[in-house]
Write a structure and sequence with these properties.
By secondary structure, the chain is of the alpha/beta class. The protein has ten helices and 14 strands.
Length: about 350
């Protein structure tokens, strides 16, 4: 559950803001898994937006109407839950401005630790903030879309995703925005010269490792699995622009909970190890297990990880052979054969 949700609900619970009524349309950007709305007064029609696959699946299972990317216009209200990524927060607020009707309200909430106060001040450079309240170690603020809104305001509020020096598109709110991750670069530079057949990139992000595979090796097919839909969309555009000769599939997929149907000769990955601020190595350990199950007999996994992450025991448990190819002061590159 997003830490800012109690702050977002506070002014409604206290009667300081009028709750959206029956027949009103509400867009909820950044809706978290485990969301619970007070059913006694939230009777409006909600469309939830969540582009992280695991949270999307949880919301869908709970019976909400949910999409990975915002769609439609003319909403009466937009809720925006703010997280740790400032540029993603700015993009959500800009999207809310584009999609609420003239006079419609936007209510945003975030924790003070994540910079919600400074973001509210930033918004005031473009539009007046009508209300600002502090509760539960966070702030909630409200603004209204003016009757006439220049396209320049949302555009100035949220800059597009950065491009790497190599010319690759990245994704706002995704892993390694605007640059090639040094761990992924180390893994790419450490791959052996004899890769071929069918390959998969687990936690593909915007597609750097896939681009390197497509560039260097005679692949029959390449599948990209990624939980962040905006990153996967960037990967699709990058592969189309830079490696159109390779047959690719792009799968918006939660590798920790959804099965992998195809079997591969090679899998590469730079697995995530954060759901919150603390390191959680169980994510990568689970992905190693999934990768072993998705390999054909004799297939190989190549992965990069921070040196301190305890992945070797699970590698030993699920592979007939495993070892380390290379390490530097920060990362290690591991391999396993099924």
């Amino acid at each position: 559950m997003n830490e800012a949700l109690p702050t977002l609900l506070f002014p409604f619970e206290r009667g300081l803001f009028d709750a959206p009524g029956a027949g009103e349309r509400v867009l909820f950007l950044g809706a978290p898994a485990g969301l619970r709305l007070p059913s006694d007064f939230f009777v409006a029609d909600f469309l939830l937006v969540q582009d992280f696959r695991a949270d999307y699946l949880a919301l869908e299972k709970a019976g909400f109407s949910v999409v990975p990317q915002a769609e439609g216009k003319g909403f009466d209200t937009a809720f925006v839950l703010l997280g740790r990524h400032r540029r993603e927060n700015e993009m959500r607020l800009a999207d809310a401005l584009r999609r609420v009707r003239p006079g419609g309200q936007i209510i945003a909430a975030g924790t003070k630790r994540d910079g919600a106060q400074s973001l509210a001040r930033h918004i005031e450079e473009f539009l007046p903030v009508q209300d600002r309240l502090s509760k539960h170690h966070g702030i909630v603020f409200r603004l209204f879309r003016p009757e006439t809104l220049s396209d320049d305001i949302p555009a100035a509020l949220a800059a597009p995703a950065r491009t790497t020096p190599e010319g690759y598109e990245t994704a706002v709110g995704g892993f390694s925005e605007g640059t090639v991750d040094p761990g992924s670069r180390l893994l790419s530079d450490s791959l052996p010269p004899y890769i071929k057949g069918t390959a998969a990139d687990f936690a593909a992000g915007w597609g750097y490792l896939s681009l390197r595979l497509a560039e260097r090796f005679p692949l029959d097919a390449l599948d990209l699995y990624e939980a962040h839909s905006s990153s996967l969309a960037a990967a699709r555009r990058n592969l189309a622009a830079h490696a159109p000769q390779v047959a690719c599939r792009f799968l918006w997929h939660d590798l920790t909970s959804e099965p992998v149907e195809r079997r591969y000769d090679v899998i590469v990955m730079n697995p995530p190890f954060h759901r919150s601020r603390a390191a959680e190595p169980d994510i990568g350990q689970r992905m190693i297990e999934v990768a072993a199950g998705a390999l054909q007999n004799g297939g190989r996994l190549f992965l990069v990880a921070n040196r301190g992450l305890p992945y070797e025991p699970v590698m030993e448990a699920v592979f007939t052979q495993h070892g380390e190819i290379r390490r530097d002061e920060t990362y290690k590159v591991l391999w396993g054969r099924k």
